[in-house]
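Known limitations

Files may contain more than one protein. Parsers should not assume a single record per file. Below, a two-record file is shown to illustrate correct handling: read the sequence, read the token line, then continue until end of file.
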Amino acid sequence: MLLRVLLITVLIYLCQCRPLDSDADAKIVKYENDVRPDGYKFEYETDNGIRHKEEGTLKKVGEVVTFSVNGTYITVYPDQDLILKVTYVADENGYRPIVSFGDIKTTNRINSALIATLQGGLR
């Protein structure tokens, strides 16, 4: 009897520790949303590393009132050690993205001056 309870407990534990099957299983860990008469701002982050931040504002171009949107979103591909970052502007001149890729291993480096300070080297 004790062996069965132990075995069932271990199986339940292992099922809970399984990796996420897909981005559909990701949980939102941060969410902010602010809607104003002259625009909006939102930001969210999920537990699998996806982040999106965007701000939209009304602006006057000559006699015409237009809408301008600035934002950034980041997607992490851990199986490839890759980060995709897209920064964009969308306004009367169209959608203009700037796409960059980074290596997870190099983007998580700690600044050497910070390490020296923590070790008491720089004051």
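...continuing to the second record:
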Amino acid sequence: MEILWLFFALLISSVTGEGEKLIVIGGQGPDVNEVVDLFTDSLYENCTEIQRYPIGFVGGSALKNSDGLLFCGGQANYKECFRYDVNDENSWSLLNFGTIQHRVYSASAPYSADGWWITGGYHDQNSSLLSTEILQSGSFVPGPNLPTPLYQHCLVRIDETRYFLTGGLPYSTSAWIFDTNTQVWEEVANPSVLRKSPYCGLSKTFNGEFQIVVSGGFDGMTPLDSVEIFSVSDQSWRFGPSLPQPMGRGATSSYGDTFILVGGYGDGGYVKDLYQYEPDSGTWATLPQKLQKGRSRHVALVVDVKDLNCTQPLA
């Protein structure tokens, strides 16, 4: 397994960088944020601890764009957004915009060149949301409604114009693709397994095939290890390799042509493990790195060292 991970890490490094880190913010379980080295031989080993988020950040949304590392929500009655500002004493800066709607347990993805699409979620008046909103030019504007109200679902950006949606509550085995050109949700083939709080990631094989991997999550209070893979070209489903353990409520972070599953909650409690999907072999690689503290309902982003306060160790 260690040899497999070393080979895959070297392969990924050809399309990513040694100076990349995984940041993990908020969630249930811990009271601190984390910075994880994705390469154990990274030239940048020493990173200043990221200060606590200004509020309890659970079920919020995060994005990296040209404005930096942006975070919104995190509580059912909270609209405010913050930027992590490494140049201002490693602190959080309150932004002059917030979300239109209180929402928690929403799903988000990059939108257009520098925008952000936040969809659905749970409202502070005990209702799931049909609405969405898009960050454009420094403010949120109403976006296209979801095909049905959802929270604890997942949204994956396929390419510049298409998005994939599935999972969540109320329970449904439906799946849709949204096209920004037509502004229409098209229902596609349904997955077989009901899931809330699943992991969803986009992967690309050597032959250029895009796949959306939907894994884990919960059926009621039971964590799942089952995996289903949606072929974007064929618009068909197949079962994939089971997760190393049943878990859900974690974070999925894009990484090169694949993704990393970060933490979550399973039969043994909060999960510390990191798992990377290998699309060509159809396997899960258990990364040698682990979270210092297991957590769930957090966010995770792969960032460059320039986004953090990191230094090279002395020779």
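Parsers that stop after the first record will miss the second one. For reference, the second record is described as follows. The helical segments are 2-13.
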